[in-house]
Amino acid sequence: MCSAPLIAVVDDDEAMREALCELVQTFSMSCRTFDSAEAFLGAHSLGRFDCLITDLRMPRMGGLELLRTLRSLGSSTPVIVVTSSSDAPSRSRALAEGAFAYLTKPVTRDTLLQFLTAALGMDPPE
Amino acid sequence: MFRELTCSSRWSDTSCASSIKSADSTSRWRLNEAVANDGHSGGDVQPSEGQYRELIQYMPTALWQVDTRAMRKVFDRLRSEGVTDFAAFLDAHSGLVELAKEIVRVAEVNRAAISLFRGQCAADLTKPVGYIFAAVPQALKRIMIAHFEGRRNHTEQSKIITLDGETRDVILSVTFPVPSEQPYRSFLTMLDITDRLRTEAQLRQLQADHAHAARISTLGELATSIAHEVNQPLAAIIMNAEASLRWLGHDEPNVLKAKQLTTRIISSAERAKDIVQRIRSLAARGDAERIVLDLNEVTEEALFFVRHDIDRNQIELSIDAAADVPKFLGDRVQLQQVIVNLIINSIQAIRQAKRSDRYIRLSIAPGYRDTLTFSIRDSGTGIADEDLDHVFASFFTTKESGLGIGLAICRSIIGAHGGCISASNLPEGGAQFQFTLPAAPPPPLVEKLAR
Q1: Residue A108: its chain B contacts at CB < 8 A?
Q2: Residues of B with CB below 8 A from A57's CB?
Q3: What fold, for A6-120?
Q4: Is the pTM above the cut of 0.80?
Q5: What is the pLDDT of residues B217-247, one digit of tens each?
Q6: Interatomic CA distance for residues A59 and B223, integer angstroms
Q7: What are the extents of the domains in chain A?
């Protein structure tokens, strides 16, 4: 691989987005954090990020709306939802909207690595 | 100047041989000439005089007539020696208060006074005044100062110890007639307020219990939000710890990274601890307190509990807090509770309304004449006209789930803080709730009230 994949993390909770970013960095991947969906969209360009990890419930624009917006912009970047809400309807809605995975907090390093490599089309970790 | 009368009826029987109820008399009663010579003469005086004495004897207010002659002499001497600041003088000469307890004597008492002190007869109480001030010696000092300074009256809330050793709460008033009226007599009255204070305390306790029960119920409603608030830092801790282990597990451990992550773990743990502390304080059953509070601060604290619910429901929250809002005296947790309840109420109304614009607008501002107001406007369903009058009634609810105690508790808490709360509908739809609280008095008075 010529360069490390670039992952975007969107969460309004600072401690959470920093923790997610730290985990991503242990996979030898690069990471950028955003405190809102709007901030992410401002920095987004087609193909810039290899994967998006986003929270669902955020003030103003939520994770699902962000996912829809991305798709409407023609982006096919895989989106992994990481949320503290584990209710089934919310899960199936996110998956129906095209989320690659729906994970609940706290995410273990192994789980995140497994879904992230799958989303990036990389070989599964040994 | 004075003449002695032997009265057929008098304030009270001084003979312990007869009971309080006895109307029989052997006592003598000094009467001011001015009263005796009230335009009547000879036999005409006696009936009105008798009626007057009867009135005093049977009036429900406990009454003492105190002979202050000895004290007046002391006062005269001190004045001639140039003493003007009598309060300072008493601070330096505390023995004078002790002396007053002995040399100032009760001359007469009525039935209510004997009954209040659980005496058998007037003689139990017609003695030096010391016994009156056994529970609160400072009261005598304050009375002496008022007397020296030539004031006509002095009233304070005090305590007495009855002859059989019980402490009672009283309102104590002393009247000092000017020398031309009654040169050597002061009149002291007492109203027993023990039962009233007890009832008030019970009411306060009930109100606090009620508020506490409602808080626990509110915490139940907020369980999901609270779980989220606690889960967030805990999840961050776990993830940071995992990352940290990873960096330490390398052939060349990245200690710098591990240090950085450990620092984050500590700050997330601190946050979790703060959250638990806040929940604990809301759940605690403390005595209602009255401390100086800033409504902007209390609002921020209340928002902690509901912010997640506001976000989850995609509600836009705005806060318009004026900088010059006066402080108020109140119970921090109870006021947080009022604001939490009002916000929950708005969130539910907004959910029911299903409008596209979803907002809550808080405003905190100085009110009219030393008051402050808090108002909350929402884009919810508003209140049906027929319900406007009883939204604050207990067990009134338009929701399928809900006890209907949230707003009732708000009214009860605001009422106990000397304020009022009202509800109205907004022309643009939605409802407005507003409460007004009296501003805290200036600092010296606050200290006094706190005592």
Answers
A1: 238, 242
A2: 308, 311-312
A3: Rossmann fold (3.40.50)
A4: no
A5: 888 878 877 888 888 899 999 999 999 999 9
A6: 20
A7: 6-120
